[in-house]
Amino acid sequence: MSHQNVTILDIQQAKHKGRKLVMVTAYDYPFGLMAAEAGVDIVLVGDSLGMVVMGLDGTVAVTMEHMIHHIRAVVRGCRGPLIIGDMPFMSYNTSIREAIHNAGRLLKEGGCDAVKLEGGVDFASTVEAIVKAGIPLQGHIGLTPQTASALGGFKMQGRDAAAAKRIIEDARALENAGVFSIILEAVPAPLGKLVAASVRVPVIGIGAGVDVDGQVLVTHDMIGLFDKFIPKFVKQYTRIRTVILEALEHYKADVIDENFPGPEHSFKMSDAALAELKKMLDIAEPDGN
Ligand code: KIV
Fold first, then answer.
1. Model-level pTM?
2. What residues are in contact with ligand 1 under a 6 Å CB criterion?
3. Which residues contact 104 (CB under 8 A, 6 or more apart)?
4. What's the gap in Å between 39 CA and the centre of ligand 1?
5. DSSP codes of every residue in 199-242
6. What gap in Å lies between CA 36 and CA 42, rounded to an integer?
7. What is the pLDDT of residue 152?
8. At what angle do helices 189-198 and 161-177 cross, to 10 degrees?
9. 48 phi, psi to nearest 5 deg
10. In ligand 1, which atom is closest to the CA atom of 118?
11. Residue 280 above 90 pLDDT?
12. Ligand 1, atom 3: nearest CA belongs to which residue?
């Protein structure tokens, strides 16, 4: 049975109905399950995986194999939301043929419903070819983490009028190339509003203000599991790291103090079987037993 309930059409229609889209990231089975249970529209297996799960400094070293491994785990748990697999750096940058091949692998081997790649005008022909091959694609513009160093780091984009205009042109090029939605990252809120008004496809913001068609956050940022750095646009809904740390420290103390395992966590053996075993092993019973 397919895991899919939310369709590409649902995502596209949400904008026209004025319904905000809710999108989060997930990288494994339990988070896939929880995202579905929470009723989000879209789950992205993002290449942010490299930073928040693998402990890398950026996303550049993430490979197709990493992505397929994690997409599979999410797909096993996530029933309902549309699942998007991120195309890692250099899986779509060298040739259109390779881009189509790799996008197809994420669907066929990973089991996701759609793919995402970073880039605007410069990648329009690649996007068009992937979509023509029958693979639904989400664009990603503004701050594009795979090429963050070329953009001057993890910084807000579209600061001046010329740069802002280029971002609107990126969005239009992606729409013309056939994307079903666009991620817009780290731009001034008024620009977010203009980009959303410039295209018919939903624009899902991450640090793009409230006047876009939906929001996405990296789940590990939002729940306070990853706090190496916290971007300005992240709202921490909980600090789950503190809860986990307390549990680990409590467990450590219990083991050292022999408070764990208690009788309720231990398996029993009948007195007769124990006595017989001791006899077999020639273990003397203490006096009186
Ligand atoms: O990889 C990722 O998690 C992303 C989100 C920031 C949209 O691309």
1. 0.94
2. 25, 44, 46-48, 86, 140, 183, 206, 216, 218
3. 133, 135
4. 19
5. -SS-EEEESS-SSSSEEEE-HHHHTTS--S---TT---S--HHH
6. 9
7. 82
8. 30
9. -60, -15
10. 8
11. yes
12. 46
